[in-house]
Amino acid sequence: MAHSTDFPRDLNRPALPARLRTALWLAEQGLPVLPLRESKGPMGNCRACRKNACGGRPNMKTPGPCACAAPCHAWAAATTDPHIFTSAAWAPAWRQAAAVAYHPGGAGVTVVDLDNADAIAWARLSLPATRNVATTRGEHWIYLGTMSSGNGVRPGVDIKSLMSYARWLGPGTGTMVPLPEAVRALAVKEPTAACPASSAPTFSAPAGGGQCPHRSPAYLERGIAMAEQRIEDAPDGIHRTVFRMFLAVLSAHGRCGCLTETHIGRLFAAAQTRGESLRHCEDAWTNARTQLGM
């Protein structure tokens, strides 16, 4: 964070919506913030950038926000600029926000998201104590320093830092310490066809030389792009659409070994952009695997 290593508390500004008051106070302390829906997903794109008309796709690892009047793409919407919060394009989102999130990487920190009691027990044995924030199911451990983000780096553990966002749940307790190598090592993975969910499956190459049976690498790319587009375009029934697209991709590419974490991450990101939570994505992926006997 730019001004302090202590996360600030809420500022009392009665004339403003409560979450906007919190956001403005956090921004004053140098913490880039963004509004969240009730599903804990980021608010949808502004009208000028609906369906990514501007070409900016930070969820797909494209650096930086688009150049529209109101930054609007998930983590890249996080800002410390109060004029953006109160602009005509962005103020309605803050009035409707169910929660406040922040971009850890933009604040110079990394959040180790521990999703259950087993993950917390592992952290207490394996990681140095640091700033601790209670969540609905577990804890956020916050370290000074940034790194690449990743979901499901081990059972019940996600990393939220660069190109990611974390829900603001209060200042927490304890003193932040530098990001340890033990956390950085969690994001270092050998190439694998594993799902980024907490129960990661493994896809084996088919017999006969281990060659992918598809016509060309472009065939897989078209399939992933089509699934992303159908998720983005779904007018309603997003849960059902996400499951059907996961099922279709797994059916076509799940057994040959060509499906990678990058491909699966793109599908998860498309679903989360439409408001799906990580847990819903993981459940849909697991259910699709089960239906296909994988």
Structure in a nutshell:
With 294 residues, the chain is of the alpha+beta class. Helices cover 32% and strands 12% of the residues.
Please outline the helices and strands:
Blueprint: H1 18-28, E1 33-36, H2 82-85, H3 91-96, E2 99-102, E3 109-114, H4 117-126, E4 131-134, E5 139-144, E6 150-154, E7 157-160, E8 166-167, H5 181-184, H6 217-233, H7 238-253, H8 261-273, H9 278-291
Antiparallel strand pairs: 1-2, 2-8, 3-5, 3-7, 4-5, 6-7
Tell me about the largest β-sheet.
Answer: 5 strands, antiparallel
Instruction: Kindly report the average pLDDT value.
Output: 75
Give the class from helix and strand content and strand pairing. alpha+beta
Q: Gyration radius, to the nearest Å?
A: 20 Å
Low-confidence stretches: 7-13, 57-64, 190-211
Helix content: 25-40%
Question: What's the order of the H and E elements?
Answer: HEHHEEHEEEEEHHHHH
C-alpha end-to-end distance: 44 Å
Q: Please give the count of helices.
A: 9
Percentage of β-strand residues: 5-15%
Biggest sheet strand line-up: 4-5-3-7-6
Instruction: Please state the overall shape, judged from the principal axes of the Cα atoms.
Output: globular
Total beta-strand segments: 8
